[in-house]
Protein: Leucine rich repeat protein
Organism: Thiocystis violascens
Amino acid sequence: MDSPADDGARTSVNHCRGCPHRRDLLTEGRCVPGDVCVRAMSGRQIERFFRVNPALADDYAGDSFWERRAIAARYLSQKKLLHLIHDPDEVVRRVLAYRLPIEALDALIGDPDREVRVTVADRLPPDRIERLAADPDYLVRQYVARRLAPGRLFRLIRDPDRQVRAMVAERLPLESLGLMRDDPEPEIRLTVAKRIGFAEAERMRTDPDWRVRAQLAERLPQDMLGPLLEDPDPDVRAIARERGCH
């Protein structure tokens, strides 16, 4: 049940005098002053109104109140949705990003709102999201790194964001993984060490992080353990020497 703080002052019947729905919906019980009302300045009342009267959403696509447009957009026909692509309010465009047909989403790739672009990156087919790989927001690029075809991830290898590169290190094809063995983040180099091919792993045996070297000591063939047998870290040496004895 809504509190006064939620809905503000309850709409009175007097407020219905100028409402176009007073002669039909009100008498039919399809709108209720103070509870199910499209003229209220309450998102909850507006939502209830369109839930009861979804066919009327198209009439409010151009309403002056942003919240009324945003809620109506949840119920709009596909044809009406297209007219709201350039709506000035980001909340309206966020609804569009969820509801527009896939073929219309390209129009929102450059949207100024991050949440809109994140939704676009999440919904577009993988073969159409590469344009978002240069997005200024790291979260959008993370979605791209998660969904882009592995063979196209090379452009994100030097991404400035650590989390983006971490996703790339997990998905990059093995033949390109050597390009990340000098990443500045130890956690990313550790991921590389877990996946990298043996022929590409030689330079990582002297990695500055002992965890990376330990991972290699567990994976590499005996004839490649080399400097790991005399590693400065006792745990790395122990792993390498135990494996070298077998």
